[in-house]
């Protein structure tokens, strides 16, 4: 395991760019040099190579509940980012589509 200091911006270094062109963390680098840079994909990979310890649950119900919570986290985070972006654009006078900019008509 190699630590990446986000505070120092190490994810933007040329060395990390070679591992993950999107410069996001975490990234799992396999022995053959393949890089997997999305948490759901990393978890799926780990679960596939270690099926005796399923990360997403052992039953259909457990896997469905895990999937539900994964989607809720993704949805919640994307909504928060879209809201922040809309607010920043509104405050800076940048016009963006009203479907994103829910704050435009609020004063």
Task: Explain what the structure shows.
The radius of gyration is 19 Å and the shape is flat. It is built from three helices and two strands. It has helices at residues 14-19, 39-49, 60-92, and strands at residues 28-29, 35-36. The longest helix is centred in the C-terminal third of the chain and has 33 residues, at 60-92. By secondary structure, it is mainly alpha-helical. It folds into two domains: 1-55, 3-Layer(aba) Sandwich (Glutaredoxin), CATH 3.40.30.10; 56-107, no CATH class. It starts with 13 loop residues before the first helix and ends in a 15-residue tail after the last helix. The model has no long low-confidence stretch (mean pLDDT 81). Strands 1-2 form a two-stranded antiparallel ribbon. Strand 1 (28-29) and strand 2 form a beta hairpin.
């Amino acid at each position: 395991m190699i630590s990446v200091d986000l505070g120092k911006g190490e994810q933007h270094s040329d060395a990390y760019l070679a591992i993950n062109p999107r410069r996001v963390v975490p990234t799992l680098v396999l022995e053959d040099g393949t890089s997997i840079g999305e948490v759901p994909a990393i978890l799926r990979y780990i679960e596939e190579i270690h099926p005796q310890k399923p990360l997403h649950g052992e039953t259909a119900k457990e896997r469905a509940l895990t999937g539900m919570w994964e989607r809720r986290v993704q949805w919640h985070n994307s909504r928060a980012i879209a809201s922040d972006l809309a607010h920043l654009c509104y405050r800076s006078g940048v016009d963006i589509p009203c479907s994103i900019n829910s704050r435009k008509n609020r004063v």
